[in-house]
Write a structure and sequence with these properties.
CATH topology of the largest domain: Rossmann fold
Oligomer: single chain
Number of strands: 6
CATH class of the largest domain: Alpha Beta
Order of helices and strands: EHHHHHHEHEHHEHEEHH
Number of helices: 12
Shape: elongated
Distance between the termini: 20 Å
Number of domains: 2
Radius of gyration: 20 Å
Strand content: 5-15%
Largest sheet: 6 strands, parallel
Helix content: 40-55%
Length: 238
C-alpha cells in the first residue's frame, strides 16, 4: 500500500528501544542513591514499597496522569517526609533516576533506520513517557519532541496528534504516526486522522475488526524500506 508521507511522528519506548530493561534498572539505581544519601528513606521504602507508594500517588493525582516526571518527584517527596529525611533531596534523587532513565539500548535496526527516515521527511516524537531525545543522543534526527507532559494530555487523545501536525505544519492525513502500542499509537492516530504504522516486533495479533493500521512492520528498518520504495527521493523532496 503506497500513499504520500510528508512527515513522520514516532513513539519512543518499545518502538525505538525496549523499556522493560530500563524500568528494572532505574529502580535499582534510585534505591542505591537513596541508600547512600537518604538511608532512612531507603530502609523504609525498598524497591517494592517505593513502587507501591508511587502507584498510590497515581491514584491520588489523576490530574497528573500525563506527567510521569512530576509524579515521580512527588512520590520521592512523600517517601522522604514519611521517613524523616529532608524532602529537599528529592530533586537530586530524581536526577539520578532520570539520568539512568535516558540510558537506552536501541533495537538493532533503530539508528540506521532513523537516519534513513530523517533524510527523507521531517521526524517528530510523540510520547507519553519522559525520555529526553537530547539525553538519549538522537535529538539531531528530530524536528521536535512533544510529550504528554508538555501538551497536557497523553495519547490516544486526538489533540496531541493534532498539535504535532500543527507544528510541522501539515494536515493530519499527510502525517504518518509510528508506534508499538495498539491503542495509544495506532488507534489513537487513526481516530485523529493520521496515517498509522504498527511496529509489531513481538508478533502480536491485531485485535480490532473496525480499525486497522495503514502499515504493519516488525522493525523500523522495514518502514524505511517501504518509504524508499513508495516515495522516491524526487517525490519526497517535492
Amino acid at each position: 500500500m503506497a500513499f504520500p508521507v510528508r512527515a513522520i511522528t514516532l513513539d519512543l519506548d518499545d518502538t525505538l528501544w525496549p523499556f522493560a530493561p530500563i524500568g528494572a534498572r532505574v529502580e535499582r539505581v534510585l534505591h542505591d542513591w537513596l541508600t547512600q544519601h537518604c538511608p532512612t528513606t531507603a530502609q523504609r521504602f525498598p524497591i517494592e514499597a517505593m513502587r507501591e507508594l508511587r502507584e498510590r500517588m497515581y491514584v491520588e493525582r489523576p490530574d497528573l496522569a500525563h506527567d510521569f516526571s512530576l509524579l515521580r518527584k512527588l512520590s520521592l517527596v512523600r517517601a522522604m517526609e514519611l521517613a524523616g529525611d529532608d524532602p529537599l533531596h528529592a530533586d537530586a534523587a530524581f536526577e539520578a533516576f532520570y539520568d539512568e532513565r535516558n540510558r537506552v539500548e536501541f533495537y538493532d535496526d533503530t539508528l540506521d533506520a532513523l537516519a534513513r527516515l530523517a533524510a527523507r521527511v521531517p521526524l517528530a516524537a510523540i510520547s507519553n513517557g519522559n525520555a529526553d531525545l537530547m539525553r538519549v543522543g538522537i535529538g539531531a534526527h528530530f524536528a521536535f519532541q512533544l510529550g504528554a507532559r508538555e501538551h497536557g494530555l497523553p495519547k490516544p487523545a486526538a489533540s496531541i496528534f493534532h498539535a504535532a501536525c500543527g507544528r510541522f505544519p501539515l494536515a493530519p492525513h499527510e502525517v504518518l504516526h509510528v508506534g508499538d502500542d495498539i491503542e495509544m499509537d495506532v488507534v489513537g492516530a487513526h481516530r485523529a486522522g493520521l496515517r498509522s504504522c504498527w511496529i509489531n516486533r513481538v508478533g502480536a495479533q491485531w485485535p480490532h475488526a473496525d480499525v486497522r493500521p495503514d502499515l504493519e512492520f516488525t522493525t523500523l528498518a522495514e518502514l524505511a524500506d517501504w518509504l524508499d520504495a513508495a516515495q522516491p527521493l524526487e517525490t519526497a523532496a517535492a
